[in-house]
């Protein structure tokens, strides 16, 4: 065995040279890895071996370029040189794939003459999720194997295609037995030699492109079909242009186009935000005083209190991963309704092909109902309370849980803002109490705010973080503060949106500015969707707010056909003269003069106070790091990922600019705009949020 460098070895197995990479955690294409590949292939080609296998140790085949190297100066051999050496090898090169062959990893594999994989492997070009495109020939080679339509889908979605499917598409030449990749790859290599299989260069395979030549409508249709999904993002469009180039230009020209567009994306703000965000999500899993090896408690059964929308949605998360759930309600009809809704949700997913009819039965079978908390919760490992937001009711429930649950059971509340320390105080085991704040619809939304109270034990936190991963959530640990991180920041935007309307902006102006910024919808359209009467009490309504008046007129949102907006029969929102008149009357009554408000002011008034509130949250230690706040807002509140989240966006604008504008607003409109001490300090020191160490 020859050691090529610290991450690469070259061995020979009969007639087959085997280059093995071992660069944890994911064999990313760092300078060392490129160096190892370059040298490894040169030596293998020079040796007496008749074929060459490239294989990786550890959890995965090469998972892509080393993202941490992006933005810095490139050292070591270029990936293109390595690819050329492989592709031009006079001996067959076989890529042996397990785990994930992603991005640059798949682009390397596409320069092998053949690819073999174990069935559990997945292959993909996920660069689009980093605001990029496959810049090492991926957009030119992939359509030459899988065809234009599939290539378009893969590069714009970033999906990881399972090996079996990849084999059906021609991307994988042979599936080998799980756990026997090396033997399988070497056998394939020997076969290639014995059968004198051709040295297939994907770049020369133009036949698959023929079907798209002279058919520009393929691209036009694809853009149209995905317009909503791609809105605001640059990378999908750039990826499409590269595939167009693959069809319309010779290979070398196509490569040049790819390289040029890759450079543009790489140097732009969207990719910077998306790469930042990739690490932000991973960073959020790290809790300084709860290390990875903190023991966890087994969670084999879950109890939920409340069969409403929230409780039902939460229950589905656990049933989806095979954990049995018991839902407790006070009344039989509420329980029946809740269980029926869960079944309906699963059936709807099945009707769209998301799960099988058998899975519907399996999952609903894991969710049972009960009216008797004492017997239902005696043995469960975790209880999540999901009743409505009243402290007295929650305290009552936790007093009961303390009495009923076995020692060591985790007692969680799904409150979206009440003080969890106060809830925990009624139990004799505050160390077992934690907040698990799911977002509606809880079976769909990715975000989970895990709320650490004063006495929450570390193993309870570790267990909750692990469980979140198991049920497919992105968890962020936050502290107890009104509204926690997400809703507390939302409060700032909502306040300004309302105020802007009382100064002369129309709800549709505010909505349009925020929609164009990249949110899925603005705050007024959102209120109409959710229902204006959430929290509105008819008997107490006295026309004091615009909402009161709208609700009194039975304009309670989309469900009544009108709210801030009017709605046509297809639920299209139309600016409403009725709302306009109500707003106008309010302004006149207040003695103010409506003024023309610029889009710029709308954006700054809505967003800068959010950044400032984020800074206060950091200052108070209610979030571990600024990027955690961004993870909350991207996953839970529709902040466009290509703008990184409020804190990253603040840095992109410039914290000095944000602080100066806040001071300007403060002078004109009051102390709600006062920059936080942390923001002022960072500006004074020329630092960023990301300079603060967790
Ligand atoms: C590209 O290839 C462009 C090519 C153009 C050529 C010019 N680089 O996700 P996990 C780290 S673009 C550096 O928790 P999993 C990650 O930060 C790239 N580091 O594990 C984490 O570090 P920590 C295209 C990376 O098993 C650790 O590895 N490729 C990279 O849940 C474990 O990661 C992609 O976009 C990287 N490329 O999932 C793939 N990847 O432990 C991105 C991971 O210090 N990666 N790390 O926190 C993934 O999708 C997943 O990591 C995974 C493994 C599916 C490979």
UniProtKB/TrEMBL annotation:
It is found in: Peroxisome. GO terms for biological process: fatty acid beta-oxidation. In the N-terminal section; belongs to the enoyl-CoA hydratase/isomerase family. Belongs to the enoyl-CoA hydratase/isomerase family. Residues 483-567, 602-687 form the 3-hydroxyacyl-CoA dehydrogenase C-terminal domain. Keywords: Fatty acid metabolism, Isomerase, Lipid degradation, Lipid metabolism, Lyase, Multifunctional enzyme, NAD, Oxidoreductase, Peroxisome. Monomer. Pathway: Lipid metabolism; fatty acid beta-oxidation. Pfam families: 3HCDH (PF00725), 3HCDH_N (PF02737), ECH_1 (PF00378). InterPro entries: 3-OHacyl-CoA_DH_NAD-bd (IPR006176), 3HC_DH_C (IPR006108), 6-PGluconate_DH-like_C_sf (IPR008927), ClpP/crotonase-like_dom_sf (IPR029045), Enoyl-CoA_hyd/isom_CS (IPR018376), Enoyl-CoA_hydra/iso (IPR001753), NAD(P)-bd_dom_sf (IPR036291). SUPFAM superfamilies: 6-phosphogluconate dehydrogenase C-terminal domain-like, ClpP/crotonase, NAD(P)-binding Rossmann-fold domains. It comes from Phenylobacterium hankyongense. Coiled coil: none annotated. This is 3-hydroxyacyl-CoA dehydrogenase. One of its GO terms (molecular function) is NAD+ binding.
